[in-house]
Amino acid sequence: MPRSTAVVLPGTGSDEVFVRSVFEGPLGALGVGFVAPPPPPGDAVVTGCLGLLDEWAESVEGPVLAGGISLGAHLAAEWALRNPDRCAGVLVALPAWNGDPGEAPAALAARASAELVEREGLEAALATSTQGVAPWLAGELDRAWRRHGDGLAGSLRSAAAHRAPELHRLRALDVPVGIAACVDDPVHPVSVAHAWAAALPRASVCETSLAAFGADREALGRAAVLAWLRALTAGPSRP
């Protein structure tokens, strides 16, 4: 396994605390260095996260294992396409769309959340958004949204508008990519994960479920890391 440090980015409206709970244990078990930078504030989240990957790639020894959850996964793949010589692979957890976000469920949810925050304020938006959801998810939203503060709505809108790598562009990404998907997640459809894998030259998908994820946050991280190891050892799938 190549020497590398994993730099893993959070998803829309999330934070590095959540990323750490998902990936730190599984990567640590492999002896891979781990960095989970806080998300840049407001509508700078996209450019800021790409800049963070640039900064860490300059400061660590060896190639970077770029990774992320949802939006963070899109940005990690985008960065890898721009920097193949500095990338040891990509950890893609819960990809939400490819190309234009359009009416993708995750983009619709982010837009609706931004509108709710702007219209009702943070407290009311949290009360509405956490009603009836699993307690672990309600807790994550409550912590992360408060940490985003006044920049939350801008961050949500920026994420919802950002193009993910198109499938035809993913065909040029010749590094091992591990993709994790929850088979019962309507916001991050498992079909998107398999479409990414079919387009990538060296990719594997490992599936888990929201129930497993809810009981153990590392279930998602283990799935992504296992898929990456499979892609790493399998070699190119196409000439």
In short:
It contains eleven helices and six strands. It has 239 residues and is an alpha/beta fold. The mean pLDDT is 95.
Question: Care to describe what's here?
Answer:
This protein is of the alpha/beta class. It folds into two domains: 163 residues, Alpha/Beta hydrolase fold, catalytic domain (Rossmann fold, 3-Layer(aba) Sandwich); 54 residues, no CATH class. 53% of the residues lie in helices and 14% in strands. It has a six-stranded parallel beta sheet with strand order 2-1-3-4-5-6, with helices on both faces. The longest helix is centred in the C-terminal third of the chain and has 17 residues. The two termini are 22 Å apart.
- At the third CATH level, what is the topology name of the largest domain? Rossmann fold
CATH class of the largest domain: Alpha Beta
CATH superfamily of the largest domain: Alpha/Beta hydrolase fold, catalytic domain
Q: How many domains comprise the coordinates? A: 2
Find the structural class using helix and strand composition: alpha/beta
Pattern of helices and strands? EHEHEHEHHHHHEHEHH
Rg over CA atoms: 17 Å
Query: Could you give the order of strands across the largest sheet?
Result: 2-1-3-4-5-6
List keywords for this structure.
6-stranded parallel sheet, single chain, alpha/beta, Rossmann fold, 239 residues, AB_hydrolase_fold
Sequence-ordered SSE layout with sheet pairings:
Elements: E1 5-9, H1 16-29, E2 33-35, H2 45-59, E3 64-69, H3 71-82, E4 87-93, H4 105-120, H5 122-129, H6 135-148, H7 152-161, H8 167-170, E5 177-182, H9 190-199, E6 203-208, H10 210-215, H11 218-234
Parallel strand pairs: 1-2, 1-3, 3-4, 4-5, 5-6
